[in-house]
Amino acid sequence: MKVSSLARGLCSATAATAISFASATIAPAETITVTDIAGRTVEVEKNPSKVVIGEGRMIYSIGLLDQDNPFQRIVGWKDDMVKYDPDAYRKYRAAFPQATDIPSFGSPYADEWNLESVISLGTEVVLMNLGNLLKAQESGIIEKLEEAGVATVFVDFRQDPTQNTIPSVQLLGRIFDKREEADAFSDYYQSQMKLIYSRVNSIPIEERPIVFIERAAGYNPDKCCNTFGAANMGRLVDLAGGRNWGSFKTPGFSAKVSLEALFADDPEVIIGTGANWAEANPATAAVLFGYEADEAAVQERLSALASREGWGELQAVKNSRFHSIYHQFYNSPYHFVAMQSFAKWLHPELFEDVDPEATMVELHDKFLPISYSGVFWGSLDAK
Description:
Keywords: Signal. The protein is an alpha/beta fold.
């Protein structure tokens, strides 16, 4: 049978298209080699479509990069954001309903983690926290994932946030192919931090007040107290022009301290941390900061914390230098907002023109896929 030249042409074009399509589908994904925050050299797929995050609150950072939809590549997570920052979870879920469908695998450093499910999803990369590096190494989870062809990458917004936030954002920007977004936020972060650094350097040490940070103040109403050492929010206090009480007491990240020691030293300023933990712990007396908080409830909770037995005799309470702030700043790239609040509380005249509220609004308008609402810090009203 003779085939017309037109038919032959169509057949050739179809075959070429099929070959081209087949080549495209089997072409290997582009990989890049990165150094993660643990100092590990990792080969990872560039712009992965299937990512598992070892902590749900990593969405705070991913939202800076995948601004159109921070859940678009997330196929599994831990449900800590759902439990311990439900205001934020509901805010994100309202904007991105698919968040409801993301399976929770629990902690990747514990026996509860379902490795088989993670692999079966076709996961390309698992993001883990630097603070859990030792646990991950001891559990063997890194090696098991590597054997399955899944890369593990460590980031850090908690252990040493002032040093590791920009490297972590840049690392994620490279992996997610979001370099422009990472650069834009990095520049903004640096400008916000330097706004404080440039003035604090002029404050003599003796004019920097002693500050006690009560970590998760009132989370368990009958227990007190935990504080930060010279790390995380303790470090932010020092950088904001204070002297962190916990830095003198422990070389570690955090520590449990006695009320007797706290009352004996009677620090000049007290700052607690709080969040909406009422759903995880209905009995909590913490200040329920977050996207759904309101000023009246914040004052009520602050007043109750200041009224605990013996606390009313402390100079920080008497002098209305008793404050509280959103706990989740301790684990997000937005801690410069907390530092600006600290600076205003510690040196109100020097930082009179600094407006953390305006910074928070600008942060959401420029970089985040959700709008700003709620209350994230507060000071006990003078009586």
